[in-house]
């Protein structure tokens, strides 16, 4: 069984819990997810099955979109609702203009310092391992991009936001930084991922429906997104049947100047490889045939 099963993850399980459940129920050996969701978070979690695991790393590179709820006036050690409260402060009277002024610095490209409770490595160790041991270390900022940051609504102590961002962006840290900008502190109260790379929430299967679907193989196959869909956000280079054979042998074909990573497909649209164009020829990152 090959393809991508887009799961609507509920709050509670880790992304690896979902992978284990999919592997057990579907009896598939090769299973992997494409971008971790925190246990508290819900929404789009693409699960790669079989041959699709070969492109999981490329799917992870895609942009993400979220609906987020920020609770003002309370900071936690994890920057979300699951952490220990570190500080509380009164929230200033909010106006749309005040909130927008706090959001403004977090649009576009900027440096974001990852939270201590994260899988980012410093000196070979995961930050969350150090945090659980009671250590806090200096973390270098990482370049991230927020393409859209929209204030949906707000109350005396809560903001509801829509975010579209690059990979590696921490919405928890955005909540923390907004709280600091408003002078009262904040944490992430709820998070729902609506887009992950080429996959959207309308394609997602609620995890609770998976056991029943696992009993109906035909229905399950219909829910799978094909391998080519996993990379549909990459520019496409279509080659002839003769050239497809050469791609399968790793021959660096001549190619037009396309930027970044591309997907190479055969005459019928079958995915052949992921590549880059270097000095006018294909440089293969992954050959899939």
Automatic annotation (TrEMBL):
Pfam families: TruB_C, TruB_C_2, TruB_N
Family: Belongs to the pseudouridine synthase TruB family. Type 1 subfamily.
One annotated GO molecular function: RNA binding
The protein's name in its UniProt record: tRNA pseudouridine synthase B
Isomerase found in the keyword field: yes
InterPro entries: PsdUridine_synth_cat_dom_sf (IPR020103), PsdUridine_synth_N (IPR002501), PUA-like_sf (IPR015947), tRNA_psdUridine_synth_fam2_C (IPR015225), tRNA_psdUridine_synth_TruB (IPR014780), TruB_C (IPR032819)
EC top class, as a word: isomerase
Keywords, comma-separated and alphabetical: Isomerase, tRNA processing
Gene Ontology process terms (BP): mRNA pseudouridine synthesis; tRNA pseudouridine synthesis
Functional note: Responsible for synthesis of pseudouridine from uracil-55 in the psi GC loop of transfer RNAs.
Domain Pseudouridine synthase II N-terminal: 23-171
Active-site residues, as the UniProt record annotates them: 38 (nucleophile)
SUPFAM superfamilies hit by this protein: Pseudouridine synthase, PUA domain-like
Catalyzed chemical reaction(s): uridine(55) in tRNA = pseudouridine(55) in tRNA
Lineage: Bacteria, Pseudomonadati, Myxococcota, Myxococcia, Myxococcales
Enzyme Commission number, as recorded: 5.4.99.25
């Amino acid at each position: 069984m090959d393809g991508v099963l887009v799961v609507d993850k509920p709050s509670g399980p880790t992304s690896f819990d979902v992978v284990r459940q999919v592997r057990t129920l579907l009896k598939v050996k090769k299973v992997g997810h494409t971008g971790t969701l925190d246990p508290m978070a819900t929404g789009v979690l693409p699960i790669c099955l079989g041959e699709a695991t070969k492109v999981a790393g490329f799917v992870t590179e895609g942009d993400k979109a979220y609906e987020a709820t920020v609770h003002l006036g309370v900071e936690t050690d994890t920057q979300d609702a699951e952490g220990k409260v570190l500080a509380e402060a009164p929230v200033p009277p909010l106006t749309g203009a005040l909130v927008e002024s706090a959001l403004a610095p977090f649009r576009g490209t900027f440096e974001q310092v990852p939270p201590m409770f994260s899988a980012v490595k410093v000196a070979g160790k995961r930050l969350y391992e150090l945090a659980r041991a009671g250590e806090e270390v200096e973390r270098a900022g990482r370049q991230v991009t927020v393409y859209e940051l929209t204030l949906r609504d707000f109350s005396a102590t809560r903001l509801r936001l829509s975010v579209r961002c690059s990979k590696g962006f921490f919405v928890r840290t955005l909540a923390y930084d907004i709280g600091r900008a408003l002078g009262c502190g904040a944490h992430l109260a709820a998070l729902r991922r609506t887009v992950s790379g080429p996959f959207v929430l309308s394609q997602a299967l609620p995890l609770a429906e998976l056991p029943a679907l696992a009993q109906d193989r035909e229905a399950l196959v219909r829910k799978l997104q094909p391998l080519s869909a996993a990379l549909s956000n990459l520019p496409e280079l279509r080659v002839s049947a003769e050239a497809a054979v050469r791609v399968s042998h790793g021959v660096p074909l001549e190619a037009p100047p396309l930027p970044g990573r591309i997907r190479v497909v055969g005459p019928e649209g079958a995915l052949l490889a992921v590549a880059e164009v270097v000095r006018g020829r294909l440089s293969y990152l992954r050959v899939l045939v």
